UniProtKB/TrEMBL annotation, chain A:
<feature type="transmembrane region" description="Helical">
    <location>
        <begin position="33"/>
        <end position="53"/>
    </location>
</feature>
<keyword id="KW-0812">Transmembrane</keyword>
<feature type="transmembrane region" description="Helical">
    <location>
        <begin position="6"/>
        <end position="26"/>
    </location>
</feature>
<feature type="transmembrane region" description="Helical">
    <location>
        <begin position="263"/>
        <end position="283"/>
    </location>
</feature>
<keyword id="KW-0029">Amino-acid transport</keyword>
<dbReference type="Pfam" id="PF02653">
    <property type="entry name" value="BPD_transp_2"/>
</dbReference>
<dbReference type="GO" id="GO:0006865">
    <property type="term" value="P:amino acid transport"/>
</dbReference>
<keyword id="KW-0813">Transport</keyword>
<feature type="transmembrane region" description="Helical">
    <location>
        <begin position="230"/>
        <end position="251"/>
    </location>
</feature>
UniProtKB/TrEMBL annotation, chain B:
<dbReference type="GO" id="GO:0015807">
    <property type="term" value="P:L-amino acid transport"/>
</dbReference>
<dbReference type="GO" id="GO:0015658">
    <property type="term" value="F:branched-chain amino acid transmembrane transporter activity"/>
</dbReference>
<dbReference type="GO" id="GO:0016887">
    <property type="term" value="F:ATP hydrolysis activity"/>
</dbReference>
<dbReference type="InterPro" id="IPR003439">
    <property type="entry name" value="ABC_transporter-like_ATP-bd"/>
</dbReference>
<dbReference type="GO" id="GO:0005524">
    <property type="term" value="F:ATP binding"/>
</dbReference>
<dbReference type="InterPro" id="IPR017871">
    <property type="entry name" value="ABC_transporter-like_CS"/>
</dbReference>
<dbReference type="InterPro" id="IPR003593">
    <property type="entry name" value="AAA+_ATPase"/>
</dbReference>
<keyword id="KW-0547">Nucleotide-binding</keyword>
<feature type="domain" description="ABC transporter">
    <location>
        <begin position="5"/>
        <end position="234"/>
    </location>
</feature>
Length: 289, 238
């Protein structure tokens, strides 16, 4: 039973990783753009949640209401003002600039909030649990987190498949030059893509703040898990990213079951094995020519 | 009268390399103009300039008297220049219908809609939900032209429509050209096949090494005259 429990908890943890990874996957998928500050954006959203709860005293889930639109606006403006200048054939400038952004963000947060580990309390929700029968219980917070990961990915997939803006974003991902011939401004579409990714970052940040401890330096490790989830799932597939997150979570859960010190290592080992056996990931997007 | 499109003494560069030299070119409302020339003569470059893909700051290029050189690609498209690019450049992640729909992004009013385009090319209605990558070359070309028409352009640019297609398919596609022109759309077509270019155009320009080597009414130009301009023998002789 302990093993089954480890797997179930791992699956739920995978939901959090998938949330971290979905924004990253979106940015890379549409703009061919690797954002090394992604983890720090998530931690920044978590600190935003902390500020909101300190100021208002309400349940931290309410923080979604201000933080999602603020992050979306910041994402759009940041893309138009800074990141669009880097988009081109060369991937290196975006890596360097977002690496710099990552350092700046971490130090700003350190300056503002100190290096102390923080946690936002969701009140009774923190300790409540749902019984699955057979002696299995899952925490309400991890369970909600997993559901929101599925929800976020379902909404993103719906946007891509059914809406005009989704169609334009897919076309931009295929061929940004030809999109201009259709009368669409690539710079604006990149801004929209960044706003969407930032909305996911905001959700991930708020839920991170409720789920676990965080500190100004917590970003890079989040980024690492997100990268692994994206690569395992296959670039360009959001459901693949969810599965990637789940595989990573389960590997860590089982690793921890063998030996508590094995948790993180087990995840990396599984990632490495998948990278060797199937470098394109489990569900790479099929692209014809 | 101002021309629909007019280029005066237009130069174009790729970095330090000059690709077009003093090109004088115009198209009038409702006209079909062919642009011919050997590989590397500058035909595709000229279309890139017209669409804004290759910016030519400081040059003289206007659509209905409005300077195009200061506009970005998407702004030029919004003013009514649409292109079916060489190699078709369909969006592989989009279905046939989605490829057509994205052509209408500029939201220009006019006769062309999903309905009328699918009436022009009935096969596209049949294959509406097929990924564009699974179509034959001819069908892909129809999508590319249909996608450009969806923008209800004033000026339609057709780059190498016949490239890699069987002659019978090329004929089918060019048979739709009169229907497109009936709606008042002007056309510039770049074509390797001189016979085809002469047959479907009112006027013709020949480019040779980045310069206009011949211009005239398609019906009045002789075959010899055209091939001399095409291969450059006229200049050697003079």
């Amino acid at each position: 039973m302990e093993w089954v429990n480890a797997i179930v908890q791992g699956i739920l943890l995978g939901g959090l990783y998938a949330l971290f990874a979905a924004g990253l996957s979106l940015m890379f998928g549409i703009m061919r753009f690797v954002n090394l500050a992604h983890g720090d954006f998530i931690v920044a959203a978590a600190f935003g949640t902390l500020l909101f709860v300190d100021a208002t005293g309400v349940n931290p889930l309410w923080a979604l209401l201000p933080i999602v639109p603020i992050m979306m606006a910041a994402g759009y403006v940041g893309q138009r003002l800074v990141l669009n200048r880097l988009s081109g054939k060369d991937i290196l400038p975006s890596i360097l600039v977002t690496f710099g952004l990552s350092i700046i963000l971490q130090n700003l947060m350190l300056e503002q909030f100190s290096a102390d580990s923080q946690r936002v309390s969701a009140g009774a929700l923190d300790t409540s649990a749902i019984s699955l029968g057979g002696g299995l219980t899952v925490g309400t917070v991890p369970f909600l987190l997993f559901l929101s990961a599925i929800g976020v990915i379902a909404v993103l997939n719906w946007i891509f498949a059914k809406t005009a803006i989704g169609r334009q974003l897919r076309a931009t991902s295929d061929d940004p030059e030809t999109v201009g011939l259709m009368g669409l401004d690539k710079r604006h579409l990149f801004g929209i893509a960044m706003a969407l990714a930032s909305a996911v970052v905001a959700v991930a940040g708020v839920l991170l703040a409720i789920k676990t401890n965080f500190d100004p330096a917590a970003g890079p490790i989040r980024l690492l898990f997100a990268f692994e989830a994206v690569i395992i799932g296959g670039l360009g597939s959001l459901w693949g990213t969810l599965l990637g997150g789940v595989i990573l979570g389960v590997a860590q859960g089982l690793g921890a079951q063998i030996d508590p010190g094995m948790q993180i290592l087990a995840g990396h080992i599984v990632f490495l094995v998948i990278l060797v056996l199937r470098p394109q990931g489990l569900f790479p997007t099929k692209r014809g020519s | 009268m101002t021309h629909l499109l007019e280029a005066k003494s237009l130069d174009a560069f790729y970095g330090d390399f000059q690709a077009l030299f003093g090109v004088e070119f115009h198209v009038d409302q409702g006209e079909s103009v062919a642009l011919i020339g050997a590989n590397g003569a500058g035909k595709t470059t000229f279309l890139k300039v017209l669409t804004g893909l290759l910016p030519v700051p400081g040059q003289s290029l206007s659509l209905e008297g409005v300077d195009l050189t200061a506009l970005r690609i998407h702004q030029i498209a919004a003013r009514g220049i649409a292109m079916s690019p060489e190699g078709r450049r369909l969006f592989p992640s989009l279905s046939v219908r989605e490829n057509l729909q994205i052509g209408a992004s500029v939201k220009r009013p006019g006769p062309w809609s999903l309905e009328t385009v699918e009436k022009l090319f009935p096969i596209l209605a049949e294959k509406a939900n097929t990924p564009s990558t699974l179509l034959s070359g001819g069908q892909q070309q129809m999508v590319a032209i249909g996608r450009a028409l969806m923008a209800n352009p004033k000026l339609l640019l057709l780059d190498e429509v016949s490239l890699g297609l069987a002659p019978v398919i090329v004929r089918d596609i060019y048979e739709t050209l009169p229907m497109i022109r009936e709606q008042g759309t002007s056309v510039i077509l770049v074509e390797q096949d001189i016979g085809q270019a002469v047959a479907v155009s009112d006027r013709l320009y020949c480019l040779q090494e980045g310069r206009i080597s011949l211009e005239g009414k398609s019906s009045e130009l002789g075959r010899d005259e055209i091939s001399a301009a095409y291969f450059g023998r006229a200049r050697e002789a003079s």
